[in-house]
Amino acid sequence: MITPAIITLLVALVAVLLFVTEWLTVDLIAMLIIVSLVGTQVISPTEGLAGFSNGATLTVAFMFVLSAALLKTGALQLLASRMSDRFRRRPQYATFLMMLLVAAVSAFINNTPVVAVFIPIVHRIAVSARIKPSRLLIPLSFASILGGMCTLIGTSTNILVSGIAQDHGLPGFSVFTLAPIGVPLLIIGVVYLTYLGARLLPDREGEGDLADRFALHDYLAEIVILNNPRVAGKRIMESPIVRELDMDIIEVRRDQDVFTLPPGDFRLVEGDTLKVRCDREKIKSLKDWVRLVDQSGSVKVMGTGLERNNSSLVEMVVTPNSEFVGKTLREVDFRRSYRAVPLAIRQREATLHEQLYRLPLMAGDVILAEVKTHYLKELQRIEQQQDSPFILLSSAALSDFHPARFYFVLTTIVGLVAVATAGLVPISIAALAGVCLLVLGRTLTMAEAYEAVDWKIVFLLAGALSLGKAMSNSGLDGQIAELMTGNLQGSGPYVLIATLYFITNLLTETMSNNATAALLAPVAIAAAQQIGVDPMPLLVTVSIAASASFMTPVGYQTNAMVYSAGRYRFLDFARIGGPLNLICWGMTTLLVPYFFGL
Fold this sequence. Notes:
The chain is of the alpha+beta class. The chain contains 26 helices and 10 strands.
């Protein structure tokens, strides 16, 4: 007989598989979880949709808006850009200060946009201080994670666990419940990354030319159109050299005229010289159609995006909430929408040059594109939007700093934290009041507030909460808890904390941290009830372990963002994050019983 517990277990296992493989987006997986659990009557329709109105989900949505308001003031960009001199004079000390700054900000606003702001700034700092970006980007990501572990509002995972506790009739976390564990981990983590972890960081990708770093020279060429009716006189969209060779035409020179990124209806004629993106060996097979211009062996590549030429190179990092994720460049109409030709895509550890329009994109992918120089300002404007699909590594634009707006936003955030900490109103109502103040104060418009919300995370939280409810309704949480506590009977609190941390952390390294927290928080509550102890220390353990994702680049969004941007390898995260994971595991095991009792 298929019981509700078995159905819930099967749904959870399928969800884990989908999260790990990334076959579907996390928001779609969350919706499928709700549909499956309601359809099999493990939870009621009301319970399935309750996650959307849960205080935890709404708090996370409101915190996205507060984060957007702070970033819009330009304060972070100003602070980070002023650190360049320190990096030139005392790089180790400057790295230490950068991590403290990132961690402090990430403790109170969402860390994903914080890292998005800092990535291009860190790249510019690395160039000016002659430091490899790979020496700074992992510390940047890890510092944001450590900062988010210090407060309730530092990360959506903490808010989710608190919400699950409240759904079970337990008191949730206050704003600083996690601070006794998170702050020591932050201090030790930053010291480790500054002195020991720095020795393990790779020296990869310095100031080298973009063409060399992306190995472009074999994939860019200049060709001359010959007198062949299959090519000469044809429009670009009809040309067989474009359709059959997956070729992009970047520039056409005709006598004294230069046409940059010509449209599809541009007609090619005999004698045109084309700058194209295509495998040079394939072009050589077209000897009756075109002639390869090859005096120097390679084609001139434009600058970094800062030079005033007809076209320029830019590096575009795909953000976690980007419309690009899961789609191809053809599906997002990349060339027409952004006036750009993709030259290469760095995905994880590989640099790809062929079939670029057919490659499904992932968060953290770096697209090297050649754009019309006059369109750079428009790309920089798009980058400044709250829902920007990319970060420009080579962008020099900084948001203007607005002191009055900054102090208003800062006062609003401090006020809501104080009100929530004092217990005057729930954190969700305090955050909502903060959003209203910011809109009334014209710091943000309502349209910008809607755009600031990462709806994928909102849907993920709603689905995760429904899965947690199903585990309680079916009794699956109790069965797993009994299995865990039964094997640890008489082992003491430290073994229980260490085991729960290990299981949670192992899962979060391979799939969404929010999904991991949703699976393990009900188990932690059931385990506490079975052995007759306060659930709070176990819930704190789950929150910390679910966020402490340092060993893989896929366990946390900020790690995925710096993966390709820093030209890291998978094992770089294991080598640097492994010791940090062990430090967090050991310290959490010791500190949780000390501060919370067990």
